[in-house]
Every structure is written in C-alpha cells, then in structure tokens.
Design goal:
Elements (H helix, E strand, L loop, with lengths): L9 E7 L3 E4 L2 E3 L6 H12 L3 E7 L10 E5 L2 H12 L4 E4 L6 E3 L21 E3 L3 H7 L6 E8 L4 H15 L3 E6 L10 E7 L5 E8 H18 L1
Parallel strand pairs: 1-4, 1-6, 4-5, 6-9, 9-10
Antiparallel strand pairs: 2-3, 7-8, 10-11, 11-12
Helix pairs in contact: 1-5
The chain binds cytidine-5'-monophosphate.
The site of cytidine-5'-monophosphate (C5P) has 13 residues, from helix 3 and strand 9.
C-alpha cells in the first residue's frame, strides 16, 4: 500500500491540451493526450491528497476519486485553475495550453471562396500564460510545478531552456521533457528532468508515466516538508 505522504494536502492538476475554436466545427489543438497529467492526479490521490483535476480534452479515461473540472479552451482552463488554486498546497500545470487563439470565432462554419483558389490567413492573438500569472501573483503556501515540452535534441541546451522557463514563469519546480513526432505525447513512457528553484536538478526520471508521476511527487513532498 502506498505511503500517504500527501494526506491532508490539496493538489490541483491540469491535464490534456486546450482547443481554440475557429468556428462551430473547427479548432486549433495540440497532440497532448493528458496521460502524464492524469498519472500525476492518480498518483497524488493514491498518496492521500484531495485532488482537483482540470481536464482539457483528455484522450484517456477520467481518473477515479478526483474532483473533475472539464474545460476546453485556454481561457476556460485559466478560470478553472485560478478558482481551484485558492488555498491549494500544490498546483501542477501539466496541460499543454495554446499560446495563441483565433482573434475571432466565426459563428457560422467558415466556407471556402468558390470564386478563387487563394489561401486563407488566420489572425491569432496571444493567450495569457497561466503558469506565469500564477507564479508572479502572491502564492504563499502553494507550490507551483510547471512542465516544458521541448523538441531540442541537445541535452545541455534542453536543460538551459528548462531553467530559463522556470525563471520566466517563477515556478517552484519545472519538469522538462523532450517531445517529438514519436515521443512524449500519447506514449506510455516518459523521460523528465525536474529543475529546482536554485537551477539544480532535483530528479532525473524515466519510465512509465505513473513512475514519472511518483518521482515528481517525491520532489513535491520533500519541498512541502522543508517549507
Ligand atoms: O511556455 P511553454 O508553453 O513551454 O510553458 C509550458 C508550461 O507553461 C506548462 O506548465 C503549461 O501548462 C504552462 N502554460 C500556461 N499558459 C500558457 C502556455 C503554457 O500556463 N499560455
């Protein structure tokens, strides 16, 4: 049986990938399946935490025993996480949040112009960086864990990207993983480096998404008990 080292803790996890609508039938999305975030929610639950899972378009089954909030767009995810983060001990931003959304959402399905074979230009606007907003707001007593999915092949540069990202967003921990066409998303295994607040490596994890989840939570538990 698991050690209940998160008993009495409230953990919020975002998982999946946002979808930004263009019209009633189309969206801009990404390849995040939600597996790693769901694995973290499940692992936190097993370890005794009370877990809120903010789920954006999951391709995996909802985990049992979590308070589930379903969202689709970045703006919906932002509202849900802001509300859930109040008084939380830990917020894990595992969701892949779209950096941009269409400037306007067409009420009718966008049609191609039958009179021309020209392309179509979409105008996009920036979404808020939700993790950075949380990181730069007062968040005493709430440990913030971010993720970075990068395609950088060089391990050293990957680590530097992760460190820079942790600092820019003012997260307490940042889990970096290299993704590509065949790894990271939708797979059952993952390899993650957890960067600590002093830029040191808190953990190097690889294995199933469940074992990576527990490895990340081991770092979280040690930070909570030293706070
Ligand atoms: O900047 P990048 O998208 O690589 O950062 C990834 C981290 O930031 C993840 O933890 C993700 O959930 C979060 N993020 C966010 N809001 C955005 C983009 C990313 O909270 N608009």
């Amino acid at each position: 049986s698991p050690v209940l080292d998160l008993a009495g803790r409230r953990v919020v996890v975002t998982a999946g990938g946002t979808r930004e609508p263009l019209d009633p039938v189309r969206f801009l999305g990404n390849r995040s399946s939600g597996k790693q975030g769901v694995a973290i929610a499940e692992a936190a639950r097993e370890r005794g935490a009370s877990v809120t899972l903010i789920a954006a378009n999951l391709e995996v089954a909802d985990p049992a025993g979590c308070d589930l909030r379903t969202v689709s767009t970045a703006l919906e995810l932002r509202d849900a996480v802001r509300e859930a983060a109040v008084g939380a001990d830990v917020v894990v931003m595992a969701a892949a949040v779209a950096d941009y959304r269409p400037a306007t959402v067409s009420e009718a399905k966008i049609k191609k112009d039958p009179g021309s074979d020209e392309g179509l230009t979409l105008e996009l606007v920036r979404n808020p960086d939700i993790l950075a907003e949380l990181g730069h707001a007062a968040h005493d007593g709430t440990l913030l864990v971010g993720f970075a999915a990068e395609t950088e092949p060089d391990a050293g540069r990957l680590l530097e990207l992760g460190r820079a990202k942790r600092r820019a967003k003012n997260a307490d921990l940042l889990a970096v993983n290299r993704v590509g066409w065949a790894s990271g998303f939708a797979t059952d295994d993952n390899a993650v480096t957890v960067i600590d607040g002093d830029d040191t490596i808190a953990a190097e994890l690889h294995g199933t998404k469940s074992s990576v989840a527990h490895g990340i939570l081991n770092v979280v538990v040690s930070k909570l008990s030293s706070a």
